[in-house]
Hints:
Chain A is built from 22 helices and no strands. Chain A is mostly helical. Chain B contains eight helices and 20 strands. Chain B has helices at 42-50, 96-101, 113-120, 137-149, 167-183, 195-201, 219-224, 229-234; strands spanning 4-13, 16-26, 31-35, 57-62, 65-69, 72-73, 81-84, 155-159, 187-192, 204-209, 212-217, 239-246, 249-252, 255-258, 266-272, 277-293, 297-304, 310-316, 326-331, 336-337. The longest helix of chain B has 17 residues, at 167-183. Classes of the chains: A mainly alpha, B alpha+beta.
Amino acid sequence: MALLALVPLGFVATYTVLIGPAEAWDLVVRPRVGMLLWNTVRLAVGSMVTCAVLGVALAFLVERTDIRFKNLWHGLLVAPLAVPAFVNSYAWVSLERSVAGFGGALLVITLSYYPLVYLPVVAMLRGLDPAMEEAAWSLGQSRWRSFRTVVLPQLRPGLLGGCLLVGLHLLAEFGALQLLRFPTFTTAIYDLYGSTFNGAAANMIAGVLVLCCLLLLLGELRLRGRRRFARLGHGAARTLEPVRLGCARWPVTALVTGFVGLSVGVPTYALVHWLRVGTSTEFPIGELAEATVSTMGLAAAGAVVTSVLALPVAWLAVRYRGAATTLIERSTYVANALPGIVVALAFVTVSLRVIPVVYQTSLLLVAAYAVLFLPRAVVTLRAGLEQAPVVLDDVAHSLGSGPLETARRVTLPVIAPSIGAGAALVFLAISTELTATLMLSPIGTDTLATSFWSASTDLRYGAAAPYALLLVLISIPATLLLMRQADRRERIAA
Amino acid sequence: MSRVELRGVTYAFGELRAVDRVDLLVPQGSLTAVLGPSGCGKTTLLRLVAGFLSPQAGTISFDDRVVAGPGTSTPPQQRRVGYVPQEGALFPHLDVAANIGFGLPKAQRGSDRVAEMLDLVELPRSYADRAPHELSGGQQQRVALARALAPAPTVVLLDEPFSSLDASLRVSTGRAVTHALRATGTTAVLVTHDQDEALSLADQVAVMRRGLLVQADRPRDLYRTPADAEVAQFVGGAAILHATVKAGVAHCALGDAPVHGTVADGEVDVVIRPEQVTITPGRTGARVGDVSFYGHDAAVRLDLLPHGPSLVARVPGLAAPEPGTEVGVGVAGSVFVLRA
């Protein structure tokens, strides 16, 4: 399964070698590629910075000040996670055509992705031992200075991790940027593939994109390695005396309200608006039901396959720690950094050349899903397996259970919730996946995401609305799961 | 319930011999404590008896049945050992009753056996349907013991079962556990680094050091006649003083004392326990250093004048002298002479 995960990477590398350095150079060094690189980099850096600033500021506001209705704000601030970026982008574009280009892209991407920073930072703030800050105060540091010198450095793992995640998501983002008419590597690959079937150019740009992703992934891995040292002592039983906002309370509350208006209000308004307009013209129950059924079917198949593949990977990584098993585990993470478009492109090309029978079948699509979402299942399962220490097996053996009986009566029941959670996460991720589905789905198979996509690219915003609503509804449980997971993970790490 | 016998048992992790040619006999129905500092190989020894590891040399037998020896090793699930690990390790997905019933044949799981075991470890029967996380640390340990005892094992192995409990709970849980073991007449091996626990709970204490079993004796004999200076100091603490024996009396820096047993005249080392050191205020002979006051008693560090050695005296709390004063010292009772 690790090999399967490496198919896309191997494909890009092999292709570059096969085509030869001269031609590869010609294909990469072109003004068009330069423009794409500039667009991709400035949007990635820009959105990472805005997300970091907003994420930390909002997390601090919610966790450490006496702002009222904290739980409400927390819920509203995480809510954008439940709106796929391409749905958010549809909301803005459909209401205001002028939202486009770099400015529009930065706005929509920031509003969609800042929770990726906000969520881990909140969890880390909760997990920090208040005694450290109190110690800093007792040493004569002001509240602001101790935040800067004691708290911020400890937030670094969560903050940087969140930023890198924003970067990786952005490199993979296709739908939102296509709607915003802001060309990056990902949209260019899709256009080259879709309009001209210019395989060579698409593959080479994919190569450059993969390099960018690996760069970010390298940063992520280094961070992950160092993170062990960021242990923060036992979880905080006490909470800190919150910072009093005083007379700044109303302006600050107004600002947060305004921000939530943009991040949650706009997509909600757009959905309601287009649903009302749309239902007066068309409401294709039959097509909706059909798309829902095929989405559910694909997602269920993908979730089962991915969980089955994730089990041995997580098992080896937890129970038999070693260089080889770490390598296997890490190789699945590489796929995490690979944009859906690259995975899809690799699967199209490789399947056409090697096993053409599977091209344009659900089988290929499910395999691509498995590669894309294996990391999520592995991460969840790993956490679960760590709850089932070897000593439980020892006890079961001493009570007369053989290996199989121990697996059936102890290990599987203990990790069942995390298998379930992992499968649910994968199910929900597949339900809202757009890019790979667009490229790999069998002819005649429409999912919610692809139906939404064809309607909104044809500017039939009303027709797209019901699909968008279903996509958001499907994403809500995944968001709740992620919220709980982030909180628990930081607490365990803390 | 049977006798457990180890002969020449050896187990090495690479170069490091964690267990080195250990011979040990655990009599039927007795509780033997394996005592040693962390890293001495005591947990490895326990895992060898349990069958989680196979010895590289030597044999382990339960009564006359060899469970591990050259070329044979019975897997743990067929040895019928009860295993109580640190922190209990209750199955988190099962309630108390299901945990206790885990090792029983299916037909017996719902029977009175579970209630019987709860009674045995002195837990209310109403706890049967609680989840492990609803129990305190001491209660979890009791359930872990009940789970190990339920299938009536040949021997019960306890791996530092009380080390995660706080001091007061440790004593009461330890008493409840030994009570349950004796009530069922179960042979048991308890691994611990806590000498109080070993001396107070066990019928036999086996001291391990760097993979070797140094001494195995009844607690009283271990304390009275330690095998060497290190055992004396590790178990109970002791001053080792040089002495000259003449006609059954040892002459040392603290004064004269009769020797324990028969010892030939000559130069020897004697073991003096802290409670044997007597203090007489108003005399000279030693300067009082730190005093640790515990209420019921006190540990007094003394520097013998004019130049050492220093030793510790244990005296009734209110009889402790002030730090810095000078006191007279002496020895009460007979002293044990170490084998050269």
